Protein backbone atom coordinates (compact mmCIF):
# COMPACT_ATOMS: atom_id res chain seq x y z
CA UNK A 1 0.00 0.00 0.00
CA UNK A 2 1.19 3.51 -0.72
CA UNK A 3 2.92 5.32 2.10
CA UNK A 4 0.65 8.30 1.50
CA UNK A 5 -2.41 6.12 1.78
CA UNK A 6 -1.15 4.72 5.08
CA UNK A 7 -0.85 8.24 6.42
CA UNK A 8 -4.38 9.04 5.34
CA UNK A 9 -5.92 5.87 6.72
CA UNK A 10 -5.29 7.06 10.26
CA UNK A 11 -6.65 10.53 9.55
CA UNK A 12 -10.39 11.11 9.90
CA UNK A 13 -10.48 14.77 8.93
CA UNK A 14 -10.06 15.27 5.17
CA UNK A 15 -9.20 18.95 5.65
CA UNK A 16 -5.95 17.92 7.35
CA UNK A 17 -4.50 16.30 4.20
CA UNK A 18 -1.55 18.57 3.35
CA UNK A 19 0.52 18.46 0.16
CA UNK A 20 3.58 20.36 -0.98
CA UNK A 21 2.60 23.35 -3.12
CA UNK A 22 5.67 22.83 -5.32
CA UNK A 23 4.85 19.18 -5.89
CA UNK A 24 1.21 19.94 -6.64
CA UNK A 25 1.96 22.56 -9.27
CA UNK A 26 4.68 20.66 -11.09
CA UNK A 27 3.51 17.07 -10.70
CA UNK A 28 -0.24 17.11 -10.21
CA UNK A 29 -0.78 19.68 -13.02
CA UNK A 30 -4.03 20.87 -11.47
CA UNK A 31 -3.62 24.65 -11.84
CA UNK A 32 -2.63 25.88 -15.30
CA UNK A 33 -2.79 29.66 -14.84
CA UNK A 34 -2.09 31.08 -11.39
CA UNK A 35 -3.15 34.61 -10.52
CA UNK A 36 -0.13 36.84 -9.85
CA UNK A 37 0.12 38.66 -6.55
CA UNK A 38 -0.14 41.99 -8.42
CA UNK A 39 -3.43 40.98 -10.05
CA UNK A 40 -4.74 39.57 -6.81
CA UNK A 41 -3.97 42.81 -4.99
CA UNK A 42 -6.08 44.71 -7.52
CA UNK A 43 -9.19 42.80 -6.48
CA UNK A 44 -11.53 44.60 -4.03
CA UNK A 45 -10.88 43.88 -0.37
CA UNK A 46 -13.84 42.58 1.59
CA UNK A 47 -12.62 41.72 5.08
CA UNK A 48 -16.15 41.46 6.52
CA UNK A 49 -17.58 39.40 3.68
CA UNK A 50 -18.78 35.84 4.17
CA UNK A 51 -16.04 34.27 2.01
CA UNK A 52 -13.13 36.40 3.22
CA UNK A 53 -9.93 34.37 3.32
CA UNK A 54 -11.32 31.51 1.23
CA UNK A 55 -9.03 30.55 -1.67
CA UNK A 56 -10.70 29.19 -4.80
CA UNK A 57 -9.58 27.75 -8.12
CA UNK A 58 -11.83 28.26 -11.14
CA UNK A 59 -12.28 25.64 -13.85
CA UNK A 60 -10.80 26.77 -17.15
CA UNK A 61 -14.18 26.90 -18.92
CA UNK A 62 -15.51 29.63 -16.60
CA UNK A 63 -14.72 33.17 -17.79
CA UNK A 64 -12.32 35.33 -15.79
CA UNK A 65 -11.11 38.73 -16.94
CA UNK A 66 -7.82 38.55 -15.02
CA UNK A 67 -6.81 35.13 -16.38
CA UNK A 68 -7.09 33.38 -19.76
CA UNK A 69 -10.03 31.06 -20.34
CA UNK A 70 -8.86 28.33 -22.71
CA UNK A 71 -11.23 25.45 -21.96
CA UNK A 72 -7.98 23.43 -22.11
CA UNK A 73 -8.19 23.66 -25.91
CA UNK A 74 -5.73 24.81 -28.57
CA UNK A 75 -8.54 26.58 -30.37
CA UNK A 76 -8.88 29.03 -27.44
CA UNK A 77 -5.23 29.22 -26.39
CA UNK A 78 -5.09 33.00 -26.81
CA UNK A 79 -8.54 33.86 -25.46
CA UNK A 80 -9.01 36.26 -22.56
CA UNK A 81 -12.52 37.20 -21.52
CA UNK A 82 -13.37 40.91 -21.11
CA UNK A 83 -15.66 40.05 -18.18
CA UNK A 84 -16.04 37.69 -15.24
CA UNK A 85 -18.72 35.00 -15.16
CA UNK A 86 -21.51 35.71 -12.67
CA UNK A 87 -20.18 33.05 -10.28
CA UNK A 88 -16.71 34.62 -10.30
CA UNK A 89 -18.14 38.10 -9.66
CA UNK A 90 -20.16 36.76 -6.73
CA UNK A 91 -17.11 35.08 -5.23
CA UNK A 92 -14.85 38.13 -5.42
CA UNK A 93 -17.63 40.46 -4.24
CA UNK A 94 -17.93 38.31 -1.12
CA UNK A 95 -14.24 38.32 -0.31
CA UNK A 96 -13.00 35.10 -1.89
CA UNK A 97 -9.49 34.96 -3.35
CA UNK A 98 -9.14 33.47 -6.84
CA UNK A 99 -5.83 31.60 -6.97
CA UNK A 100 -5.91 30.46 -10.59
CA UNK A 101 -7.58 28.42 -13.33
CA UNK A 102 -7.93 24.68 -12.99
CA UNK A 103 -7.03 22.17 -15.70
CA UNK A 104 -9.91 20.23 -17.26
CA UNK A 105 -10.84 17.97 -20.15
CA UNK A 106 -11.16 20.02 -23.34
CA UNK A 107 -14.51 21.85 -23.31
CA UNK A 108 -15.55 19.60 -20.41
CA UNK A 109 -15.61 16.48 -22.58
CA UNK A 110 -14.05 13.60 -20.69
CA UNK A 111 -14.22 11.48 -17.54
CA UNK A 112 -10.50 11.13 -16.76
CA UNK A 113 -8.97 14.61 -17.39
CA UNK A 114 -6.60 13.27 -20.05
CA UNK A 115 -8.13 15.20 -22.98
CA UNK A 116 -6.44 18.53 -22.22
CA UNK A 117 -4.10 20.74 -24.22
CA UNK A 118 -2.25 21.32 -20.93
CA UNK A 119 -1.64 17.62 -20.28
CA UNK A 120 -3.37 15.23 -17.89
CA UNK A 121 -4.07 15.90 -14.22
CA UNK A 122 -2.39 13.44 -11.86
CA UNK A 123 -4.38 12.37 -8.81
CA UNK A 124 -2.54 13.83 -5.77
CA UNK A 125 -3.51 10.83 -3.67
CA UNK A 126 -0.57 8.98 -5.21
CA UNK A 127 2.05 11.60 -4.32
CA UNK A 128 4.17 11.28 -1.17
CA UNK A 129 3.80 14.28 1.12
CA UNK A 130 7.40 14.52 2.27
CA UNK A 131 9.37 13.90 -0.92
CA UNK A 132 6.87 14.77 -3.64
CA UNK A 133 7.58 11.42 -5.30
CA UNK A 134 4.80 10.10 -7.51
CA UNK A 135 4.29 6.58 -6.19
CA UNK A 136 1.42 5.76 -8.53
CA UNK A 137 0.03 7.78 -11.43
CA UNK A 138 -3.75 7.69 -11.48
CA UNK A 139 -6.44 9.84 -13.05
CA UNK A 140 -7.97 12.66 -11.05
CA UNK A 141 -11.25 12.14 -12.91
CA UNK A 142 -12.90 14.47 -15.36
CA UNK A 143 -13.76 16.78 -16.60
CA UNK A 144 -13.20 18.89 -13.46
CA UNK A 145 -10.12 16.91 -12.44
CA UNK A 146 -7.97 20.00 -11.99
CA UNK A 147 -10.52 21.49 -9.58
CA UNK A 148 -10.72 18.29 -7.52
CA UNK A 149 -6.95 17.77 -7.50
CA UNK A 150 -6.30 21.40 -6.50
CA UNK A 151 -8.58 20.95 -3.49
CA UNK A 152 -7.11 17.57 -2.56
CA UNK A 153 -3.57 18.96 -2.88
CA UNK A 154 -4.43 21.89 -0.61
CA UNK A 155 -3.72 24.46 -3.33
CA UNK A 156 -7.05 26.04 -2.48
CA UNK A 157 -9.88 25.73 0.03
CA UNK A 158 -12.54 25.15 -2.61
CA UNK A 159 -12.89 25.14 -6.38
CA UNK A 160 -15.55 25.67 -9.01
CA UNK A 161 -16.10 22.99 -11.61
CA UNK A 162 -18.83 22.27 -14.10
CA UNK A 163 -20.92 19.12 -14.18
CA UNK A 164 -22.68 18.00 -17.35
CA UNK A 165 -22.87 14.26 -16.74
CA UNK A 166 -20.78 13.77 -13.61
CA UNK A 167 -17.80 16.04 -14.14
CA UNK A 168 -17.78 17.28 -10.53
CA UNK A 169 -18.88 14.13 -8.71
CA UNK A 170 -16.57 11.69 -10.48
CA UNK A 171 -13.35 13.68 -9.78
CA UNK A 172 -14.55 14.23 -6.20
CA UNK A 173 -14.90 10.48 -5.77
CA UNK A 174 -11.48 9.69 -7.28
CA UNK A 175 -9.66 12.41 -5.29
CA UNK A 176 -11.41 11.89 -1.95
CA UNK A 177 -13.10 15.32 -1.69
CA UNK A 178 -16.68 16.60 -1.64
CA UNK A 179 -18.29 17.58 -4.95
CA UNK A 180 -21.77 19.08 -5.37
CA UNK A 181 -23.76 19.36 -8.58
CA UNK A 182 -26.68 21.65 -7.67
CA UNK A 183 -30.19 21.51 -9.06
CA UNK A 184 -30.16 22.59 -12.71
CA UNK A 185 -30.79 26.33 -12.94
CA UNK A 186 -29.96 27.13 -9.29
CA UNK A 187 -26.47 28.56 -9.99
CA UNK A 188 -25.97 30.97 -12.90
CA UNK A 189 -24.28 29.72 -16.07
CA UNK A 190 -23.74 33.20 -17.49
CA UNK A 191 -20.09 33.42 -18.49
CA UNK A 192 -19.61 29.65 -18.54
CA UNK A 193 -18.49 28.29 -21.92
CA UNK A 194 -21.27 25.97 -23.08
CA UNK A 195 -20.88 22.25 -23.63
CA UNK A 196 -24.50 21.05 -23.43
CA UNK A 197 -26.89 23.82 -22.42
CA UNK A 198 -29.67 21.62 -21.05
CA UNK A 199 -27.25 19.74 -18.77
CA UNK A 200 -24.41 22.10 -17.75
CA UNK A 201 -24.25 23.08 -14.07
CA UNK A 202 -21.62 24.99 -12.10
CA UNK A 203 -20.58 22.81 -9.16
CA UNK A 204 -18.53 23.26 -6.00
CA UNK A 205 -15.68 21.11 -4.66
CA UNK A 206 -14.08 21.31 -1.21
CA UNK A 207 -12.61 19.09 1.48
CA UNK A 208 -15.78 19.20 3.60
CA UNK A 209 -19.50 19.83 3.14
CA UNK A 210 -19.43 22.93 5.32
CA UNK A 211 -17.14 24.73 2.87
CA UNK A 212 -19.21 23.54 -0.09
CA UNK A 213 -22.29 25.03 1.56
CA UNK A 214 -20.54 28.37 2.19
CA UNK A 215 -19.75 28.73 -1.50
CA UNK A 216 -23.06 27.28 -2.72
CA UNK A 217 -25.15 29.67 -0.64
CA UNK A 218 -23.37 32.68 -2.16
CA UNK A 219 -23.79 31.42 -5.72
CA UNK A 220 -27.36 30.05 -5.54
CA UNK A 221 -29.12 33.28 -6.50
CA UNK A 222 -31.25 34.20 -9.50
CA UNK A 223 -29.42 35.81 -12.42
CA UNK A 224 -31.56 37.47 -15.09
CA UNK A 225 -28.70 37.18 -17.61
CA UNK A 226 -28.93 33.38 -17.56
CA UNK A 227 -31.97 32.23 -19.58
CA UNK A 228 -31.84 28.82 -17.88
CA UNK A 229 -31.89 30.25 -14.33
CA UNK A 230 -34.73 29.07 -12.11
CA UNK A 231 -36.94 32.05 -11.20
CA UNK A 232 -37.21 33.14 -7.57
CA UNK A 233 -40.81 31.94 -7.36
CA UNK A 234 -39.86 28.39 -8.33
CA UNK A 235 -37.02 28.38 -5.81
CA UNK A 236 -39.38 29.45 -3.05
CA UNK A 237 -41.92 26.83 -4.11
CA UNK A 238 -39.28 24.09 -3.88
CA UNK A 239 -38.28 25.28 -0.41
CA UNK A 240 -41.88 25.22 0.79
CA UNK A 241 -42.48 21.74 -0.63
CA UNK A 242 -39.41 20.40 1.16
CA UNK A 243 -40.35 22.03 4.46
CA UNK A 244 -43.89 20.64 4.32
CA UNK A 245 -42.61 17.09 3.87
CA UNK A 246 -39.51 17.07 6.02
CA UNK A 247 -38.34 19.98 8.10
CA UNK A 248 -34.70 19.17 8.72
CA UNK A 249 -32.13 16.68 9.92
CA UNK A 250 -31.68 17.25 13.67
CA UNK A 251 -27.94 17.19 14.23
CA UNK A 252 -26.72 13.66 13.59
CA UNK A 253 -30.18 12.18 14.11
CA UNK A 254 -31.95 10.95 11.00
CA UNK A 255 -35.25 9.92 12.59
CA UNK A 256 -37.95 10.10 9.94
CA UNK A 257 -35.53 10.25 7.00
CA UNK A 258 -36.20 7.68 4.29
CA UNK A 259 -33.11 6.82 2.23
CA UNK A 260 -33.70 5.08 -1.09
CA UNK A 261 -31.20 2.52 -2.36
CA UNK A 262 -31.70 2.12 -6.13
CA UNK A 263 -31.03 -1.45 -7.26
CA UNK A 264 -29.97 -0.34 -10.76
CA UNK A 265 -26.97 1.51 -9.27
CA UNK A 266 -25.21 -1.72 -8.36
CA UNK A 267 -24.43 -3.04 -11.88
CA UNK A 268 -22.14 -5.93 -12.71
CA UNK A 269 -19.37 -3.46 -13.67
CA UNK A 270 -19.24 -2.16 -10.07
CA UNK A 271 -16.10 -3.23 -8.19
CA UNK A 272 -16.90 -5.24 -5.08
CA UNK A 273 -14.43 -3.14 -3.09
CA UNK A 274 -16.65 -0.13 -3.83
CA UNK A 275 -19.77 -1.86 -2.54
CA UNK A 276 -18.42 -2.65 0.93
CA UNK A 277 -17.82 0.97 2.08
CA UNK A 278 -21.22 2.00 0.67
CA UNK A 279 -22.96 -0.74 2.64
CA UNK A 280 -21.09 0.38 5.75
CA UNK A 281 -22.33 3.95 5.28
CA UNK A 282 -25.91 2.71 4.81
CA UNK A 283 -25.75 0.73 8.04
CA UNK A 284 -24.42 3.75 9.91
CA UNK A 285 -27.27 5.88 8.57
CA UNK A 286 -29.74 3.24 9.72
CA UNK A 287 -28.14 3.24 13.16
CA UNK A 288 -28.83 6.99 13.36
CA UNK A 289 -32.53 6.55 12.68
CA UNK A 290 -32.82 6.54 8.89
CA UNK A 291 -35.08 4.04 7.17
CA UNK A 292 -33.48 2.28 4.20
CA UNK A 293 -35.89 1.65 1.32
CA UNK A 294 -35.04 -0.43 -1.78
CA UNK A 295 -36.27 1.42 -4.87
CA UNK A 296 -36.23 0.81 -8.60
CA UNK A 297 -35.46 3.31 -11.36
CA UNK A 298 -36.14 1.08 -14.39
CA UNK A 299 -35.07 3.54 -17.08
CA UNK A 300 -31.55 3.87 -15.64
CA UNK A 301 -29.91 1.33 -18.01
CA UNK A 302 -30.80 3.59 -20.96
CA UNK A 303 -29.48 6.80 -19.37
CA UNK A 304 -25.89 6.63 -20.56
CA UNK A 305 -26.82 6.17 -24.22
CA UNK A 306 -29.39 8.96 -24.07
CA UNK A 307 -26.90 11.27 -22.37
CA UNK A 308 -24.19 10.87 -24.99
CA UNK A 309 -26.66 11.49 -27.82
CA UNK A 310 -28.15 14.62 -26.21
CA UNK A 311 -24.89 16.10 -24.91
CA UNK A 312 -23.03 15.46 -28.16
CA UNK A 313 -25.82 16.99 -30.22
CA UNK A 314 -25.83 20.13 -28.09
CA UNK A 315 -22.03 20.27 -28.16
CA UNK A 316 -22.05 20.03 -31.95
CA UNK A 317 -24.32 23.06 -32.08
CA UNK A 318 -22.47 25.08 -29.42
CA UNK A 319 -18.97 24.46 -30.76
CA UNK A 320 -19.94 25.39 -34.33
CA UNK A 321 -19.09 29.00 -33.44
CA UNK A 322 -15.37 28.19 -33.16
CA UNK A 323 -14.56 28.55 -36.85
CA UNK A 324 -11.33 30.55 -36.71
CA UNK A 325 -13.06 33.58 -38.18
CA UNK A 326 -15.59 34.83 -35.63
CA UNK A 327 -14.38 32.85 -32.61
CA UNK A 328 -11.31 30.86 -31.72
CA UNK A 329 -7.68 30.80 -32.80
CA UNK A 330 -7.28 30.69 -36.58
CA UNK A 331 -4.88 28.22 -38.15
CA UNK A 332 -3.84 29.38 -41.61
CA UNK A 333 -4.39 26.75 -44.34
CA UNK A 334 -1.29 25.38 -46.09
CA UNK A 335 -0.05 27.06 -49.29
CA UNK A 336 -2.15 26.16 -52.29
CA UNK A 337 -5.35 25.53 -50.36
CA UNK A 338 -8.59 26.70 -51.98
CA UNK A 339 -9.45 29.69 -49.80
CA UNK A 340 -12.47 30.56 -51.92
CA UNK A 341 -14.30 27.78 -50.14
CA UNK A 342 -14.96 29.03 -46.62
CA UNK A 343 -15.46 25.44 -45.48
CA UNK A 344 -11.79 24.74 -46.19
CA UNK A 345 -10.76 27.51 -43.80
CA UNK A 346 -13.15 26.19 -41.15
CA UNK A 347 -12.08 22.59 -41.56
CA UNK A 348 -8.37 23.29 -41.31
CA UNK A 349 -8.72 25.38 -38.15
CA UNK A 350 -11.12 23.00 -36.44
CA UNK A 351 -9.17 19.85 -37.37
CA UNK A 352 -5.99 21.21 -35.78
CA UNK A 353 -7.67 23.23 -33.01
CA UNK A 354 -9.97 20.60 -31.51
CA UNK A 355 -8.65 17.47 -29.81
CA UNK A 356 -9.65 13.97 -30.86
CA UNK A 357 -12.26 13.48 -28.14
CA UNK A 358 -14.00 16.76 -28.93
CA UNK A 359 -13.99 15.90 -32.64
CA UNK A 360 -15.44 12.49 -31.89
CA UNK A 361 -18.35 13.92 -29.90
CA UNK A 362 -19.03 16.68 -32.42
CA UNK A 363 -19.24 14.13 -35.21
CA UNK A 364 -21.56 11.96 -33.11
CA UNK A 365 -23.75 14.96 -32.32
CA UNK A 366 -23.86 16.16 -35.92
CA UNK A 367 -24.95 12.71 -37.04
CA UNK A 368 -27.65 12.52 -34.34
CA UNK A 369 -29.09 15.82 -35.62
CA UNK A 370 -29.02 14.83 -39.28
CA UNK A 371 -32.32 14.30 -41.09
CA UNK A 372 -31.88 10.53 -41.36
CA UNK A 373 -30.98 9.99 -37.69
CA UNK A 374 -32.92 12.72 -35.86
CA UNK A 375 -35.99 10.62 -35.07
CA UNK A 376 -34.16 7.43 -34.16
CA UNK A 377 -31.44 9.04 -32.04
CA UNK A 378 -32.03 12.57 -30.77
CA UNK A 379 -35.80 12.43 -30.29
CA UNK A 380 -35.59 8.92 -28.89
CA UNK A 381 -32.95 10.10 -26.38
CA UNK A 382 -35.26 12.92 -25.31
CA UNK A 383 -38.04 10.39 -24.71
CA UNK A 384 -35.70 8.33 -22.54
CA UNK A 385 -34.79 11.48 -20.62
CA UNK A 386 -38.47 12.08 -19.89
CA UNK A 387 -38.83 8.51 -18.58
CA UNK A 388 -35.81 8.98 -16.31
CA UNK A 389 -37.29 12.15 -14.83
CA UNK A 390 -40.57 10.30 -14.23
CA UNK A 391 -38.68 7.49 -12.46
CA UNK A 392 -37.22 9.95 -9.95
CA UNK A 393 -40.57 11.69 -9.40
CA UNK A 394 -42.16 8.30 -8.59
CA UNK A 395 -39.69 7.50 -5.80
CA UNK A 396 -39.28 10.90 -4.07
CA UNK A 397 -41.84 11.89 -1.42
CA UNK A 398 -41.07 15.57 -2.10
CA UNK A 399 -42.95 16.78 -5.20
CA UNK A 400 -41.07 18.27 -8.13
CA UNK A 401 -41.47 22.05 -7.96
CA UNK A 402 -40.97 22.28 -11.72
CA UNK A 403 -44.10 20.22 -12.42
CA UNK A 404 -47.32 22.05 -13.27
CA UNK A 405 -49.23 19.98 -10.69
CA UNK A 406 -46.67 18.73 -8.17
CA UNK A 407 -47.51 15.40 -6.56
CA UNK A 408 -45.52 12.60 -4.96
CA UNK A 409 -46.09 9.24 -3.26
CA UNK A 410 -46.63 9.46 0.50
CA UNK A 411 -44.34 6.46 1.05
CA UNK A 412 -41.55 7.83 -1.13
CA UNK A 413 -37.99 8.58 -0.06
CA UNK A 414 -36.30 11.87 0.80
CA UNK A 415 -32.93 11.12 -0.79
CA UNK A 416 -31.21 8.39 -2.76
CA UNK A 417 -27.79 6.99 -1.90
CA UNK A 418 -25.47 5.04 -4.21
CA UNK A 419 -21.78 4.70 -5.18
CA UNK A 420 -20.37 7.71 -7.05
CA UNK A 421 -18.23 5.62 -9.42
CA UNK A 422 -17.88 2.01 -10.51
CA UNK A 423 -14.25 1.87 -9.37
CA UNK A 424 -11.42 3.76 -7.75
CA UNK A 425 -9.31 6.13 -9.85
CA UNK A 426 -8.04 4.42 -13.07
CA UNK A 427 -4.29 4.28 -13.60
CA UNK A 428 -2.35 6.56 -15.93
CA UNK A 429 0.13 4.60 -18.00
CA UNK A 430 2.90 5.18 -20.53
CA UNK A 431 4.57 8.28 -21.97
CA UNK A 432 1.37 9.42 -23.65
CA UNK A 433 -0.53 9.00 -20.37
CA UNK A 434 -2.94 6.50 -21.87
CA UNK A 435 -5.17 4.92 -19.25
CA UNK A 436 -6.59 1.48 -18.83
CA UNK A 437 -10.01 2.88 -19.66
CA UNK A 438 -8.70 4.94 -22.58
CA UNK A 439 -7.80 1.78 -24.47
CA UNK A 440 -11.52 1.45 -25.14
CA UNK A 441 -13.60 4.57 -25.68
CA UNK A 442 -16.73 2.76 -24.54
CA UNK A 443 -15.02 1.76 -21.29
CA UNK A 444 -14.06 5.39 -20.71
CA UNK A 445 -17.65 6.51 -21.26
CA UNK A 446 -18.80 3.87 -18.78
CA UNK A 447 -17.17 5.91 -15.98
CA UNK A 448 -20.23 8.20 -16.05
CA UNK A 449 -22.81 5.45 -15.63
CA UNK A 450 -23.52 6.27 -11.96
CA UNK A 451 -23.76 10.04 -12.37
CA UNK A 452 -25.58 10.61 -15.66
CA UNK A 453 -29.21 9.92 -14.53
CA UNK A 454 -29.26 12.78 -12.00
CA UNK A 455 -27.84 15.08 -14.68
CA UNK A 456 -30.53 14.16 -17.19
CA UNK A 457 -33.19 14.85 -14.54
CA UNK A 458 -31.53 18.08 -13.37
CA UNK A 459 -31.38 16.93 -9.73
CA UNK A 460 -28.99 17.97 -6.95
CA UNK A 461 -26.34 15.31 -6.32
CA UNK A 462 -23.27 15.34 -4.12
CA UNK A 463 -20.35 12.93 -3.81
CA UNK A 464 -19.00 12.59 -0.27
CA UNK A 465 -15.89 10.59 0.67
CA UNK A 466 -17.11 7.21 1.87
CA UNK A 467 -13.90 5.38 2.66
CA UNK A 468 -11.32 3.47 0.64
CA UNK A 469 -11.34 0.55 -1.74
CA UNK A 470 -9.24 -2.59 -1.45
CA UNK A 471 -6.38 -0.76 -3.18
CA UNK A 472 -6.40 2.03 -0.57
CA UNK A 473 -7.74 4.70 -2.93
CA UNK A 474 -10.77 6.93 -2.21
CA UNK A 475 -14.38 5.94 -2.81
CA UNK A 476 -17.25 8.40 -3.01
CA UNK A 477 -20.87 7.98 -1.94
CA UNK A 478 -23.50 10.03 -3.79
CA UNK A 479 -26.57 11.62 -2.22
CA UNK A 480 -29.32 12.61 -4.68
CA UNK A 481 -32.43 14.65 -3.89
CA UNK A 482 -35.50 16.05 -5.60
CA UNK A 483 -35.10 19.25 -7.62
CA UNK A 484 -34.53 22.20 -5.26
CA UNK A 485 -33.64 20.02 -2.27
CA UNK A 486 -29.96 20.99 -2.34
CA UNK A 487 -29.92 21.87 1.36
CA UNK A 488 -31.25 18.46 2.38
CA UNK A 489 -28.62 16.76 0.20
CA UNK A 490 -25.88 18.75 1.94
CA UNK A 491 -27.24 18.00 5.40
CA UNK A 492 -27.28 14.27 4.74
CA UNK A 493 -23.76 14.64 3.36
CA UNK A 494 -22.65 16.16 6.66
CA UNK A 495 -24.04 13.18 8.55
CA UNK A 496 -22.09 10.84 6.25
CA UNK A 497 -18.95 12.83 7.09
CA UNK A 498 -19.60 12.35 10.80
CA UNK A 499 -20.20 8.63 10.21
CA UNK A 500 -16.72 8.32 8.71
CA UNK A 501 -15.17 10.22 11.61
CA UNK A 502 -16.87 7.95 14.15
CA UNK A 503 -15.94 4.75 12.29
UniProtKB/TrEMBL annotation:
<dbReference type="InterPro" id="IPR004412">
    <property type="entry name" value="GatA"/>
</dbReference>
<feature type="active site" description="Charge relay system">
    <location>
        <position position="59"/>
    </location>
</feature>
<dbReference type="GO" id="GO:0050567">
    <property type="term" value="F:glutaminyl-tRNA synthase (glutamine-hydrolyzing) activity"/>
</dbReference>
<keyword id="KW-0547">Nucleotide-binding</keyword>
<dbReference type="InterPro" id="IPR020556">
    <property type="entry name" value="Amidase_CS"/>
</dbReference>
<dbReference type="GO" id="GO:0032543">
    <property type="term" value="P:mitochondrial translation"/>
</dbReference>
<feature type="active site" description="Charge relay system">
    <location>
        <position position="143"/>
    </location>
</feature>
<comment type="function">
    <text>Allows the formation of correctly charged Gln-tRNA(Gln) through the transamidation of misacylated Glu-tRNA(Gln) in the mitochondria. The reaction takes place in the presence of glutamine and ATP through an activated gamma-phospho-Glu-tRNA(Gln).</text>
</comment>
<feature type="active site" description="Acyl-ester intermediate">
    <location>
        <position position="167"/>
    </location>
</feature>
<keyword id="KW-0067">ATP-binding</keyword>
<dbReference type="InterPro" id="IPR036928">
    <property type="entry name" value="AS_sf"/>
</dbReference>
<dbReference type="GO" id="GO:0005524">
    <property type="term" value="F:ATP binding"/>
</dbReference>
<dbReference type="GO" id="GO:0030956">
    <property type="term" value="C:glutamyl-tRNA(Gln) amidotransferase complex"/>
</dbReference>
<dbReference type="InterPro" id="IPR000120">
    <property type="entry name" value="Amidase"/>
</dbReference>
<dbReference type="GO" id="GO:0005739">
    <property type="term" value="C:mitochondrion"/>
</dbReference>
<keyword id="KW-0648">Protein biosynthesis</keyword>
<comment type="subunit">
    <text>Subunit of the heterotrimeric GatCAB amidotransferase (AdT) complex, composed of A, B and C subunits.</text>
</comment>
<feature type="domain" description="Amidase">
    <location>
        <begin position="36"/>
        <end position="489"/>
    </location>
</feature>
<keyword id="KW-0496">Mitochondrion</keyword>
<dbReference type="GO" id="GO:0070681">
    <property type="term" value="P:glutaminyl-tRNAGln biosynthesis via transamidation"/>
</dbReference>
<keyword id="KW-0436">Ligase</keyword>
<dbReference type="InterPro" id="IPR023631">
    <property type="entry name" value="Amidase_dom"/>
</dbReference>
<dbReference type="Pfam" id="PF01425">
    <property type="entry name" value="Amidase"/>
</dbReference>
<comment type="similarity">
    <text>Belongs to the amidase family. GatA subfamily.</text>
</comment>
<protein>
    <recommendedName>
        <fullName>Glutamyl-tRNA(Gln) amidotransferase subunit A, mitochondrial</fullName>
        <ecNumber>6.3.5.7</ecNumber>
    </recommendedName>
</protein>
Amino acid sequence: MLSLVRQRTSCSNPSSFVFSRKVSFQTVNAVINALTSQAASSLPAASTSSLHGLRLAIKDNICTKNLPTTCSSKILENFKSPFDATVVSLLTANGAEIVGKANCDEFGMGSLNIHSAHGPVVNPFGVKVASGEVVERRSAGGSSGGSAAAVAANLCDAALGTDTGGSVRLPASYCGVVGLKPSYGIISRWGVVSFADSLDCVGVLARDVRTVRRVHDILAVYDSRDPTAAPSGVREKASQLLTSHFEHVQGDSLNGLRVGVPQEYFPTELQQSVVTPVRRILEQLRARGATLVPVSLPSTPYALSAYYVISSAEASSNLARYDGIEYGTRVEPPPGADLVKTANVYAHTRSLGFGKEVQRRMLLGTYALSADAFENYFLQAQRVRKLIKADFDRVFCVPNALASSPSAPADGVHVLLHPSAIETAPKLRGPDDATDAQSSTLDAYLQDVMTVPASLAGLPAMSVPGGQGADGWPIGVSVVGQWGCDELVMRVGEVIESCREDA
